[in-house]
Automatic annotation (TrEMBL):
Its EC number is 2.1.1.-. Interacts with nop5. Component of box C/D small ribonucleoprotein (sRNP) particles that contain rpl7ae, FlpA and nop5, plus a guide RNA. It comes from Haladaptatus litoreus. Transmembrane segments: none annotated. It comes from the Archaea. The gene is flpA. SUPFAM superfamilies: S-adenosyl-L-methionine-dependent methyltransferases. This is Fibrillarin-like rRNA/tRNA 2'-O-methyltransferase.
């Protein structure tokens, strides 16, 4: 791996773009989690395994600077949220399936700013007493029906001027519909609570996914 960074001015502090095995890769610094390539403290952040990394690869206007407080919805076993915790402040990770949450607890062992919560993101009242209000960023990747509604229900945690970084998986809403129709509907539903800053399809990293950056109204 090269010691010199490439142009990473659009990346949050703590995320770099480095030559790794002859390829330019995003990296964060932390304990490895999912068998990702490492060099010293640096670990590759694979955009094919992470919608947020795909949004950064596409240079979307995430507004991430590093050190933000984050509410992450749909943490699974911690692939993406482990990287987020590497460059953020307090990171609350909501996941409703017990099995991946057990893995997530292991990931949190080496990250004292990562707080796994076995909770349903459709029921924010069940974790409102734990998650601080006024987080800087909500990241959402739940890949389940009603993705825009989940985002709207969790708007209460986001400070004014904060950002929603959302991945919408078309097939999770309706396998039969045209993805563009699903995305139009999601954008429309979000307008209740958010103003959309930018949207972008996440190909070639994720098929039929839309990345959305939005700010609360
Ligand atoms: N974001 C993860 C990553 O990049 O490492 C992958 C997330 S996976 C696509 C979607 C996850 O959301 C699954 O683990 C699923 O159990 C979880 N999920 C779906 N609906 C949820 C809900 N209502 N509340 C909490 N988690 C949910």
């Amino acid at each position: 791996m090269s010691d010199s960074n490439e142009d990473d001015s659009a990346l949050p502090t703590g995320v770099e773009r480095r030559q790794f095995g002859g390829e330019s890769r995003l990296v964060t610094r932390g304990e490895p989690v999912y068998g990702e390539p490492t060099d010293g403290d640096w670990r590759c952040w694979d955009a094919r395994r992470s919608k947020l990394a795909a949004m950064l690869e596409h240079e979307m206007d995430t507004g991430l600077q590093g050190d933000e407080t984050v509410l992450y919805l749909g943490a699974a076993s911690g692939t993406t949220v482990s990287h987020v915790a590497d460059f953020s402040g307090a990171t609350y990770a909501v996941e409703f399936a017990p099995r991946p949450t057990r893995d997530l607890l292991d990931v949190a062992e080496s990250r004292d700013n990562l707080f796994p919560l076995l909770k349903d993101a459709r029921k924010p009242a069940t974790y409102a007493h734990v998650v601080e209000s006024n987080v800087d960023v909500v990241v959402q990747d739940v890949a389940t029906r009603g993705q825009a509604r989940v985002a709207c229900e969790n708007r209460q945690f986001l400070k004014d001027g904060g950002r929603l970084l959302l991945a919408i998986k078309a097939r999770s809403e309706d396998v039969a519909s045209d993805p563009e129709a699903v995305f139009d509907h999601a954008r429309e539903s979000l307008k209740e609570e958010f103003e959309i800053v930018e949207t972008r399809r996440l190909e070639p990293f994720h098929t039929d996914h839309l990345g959305i950056v939005a700010v609360p109204r």
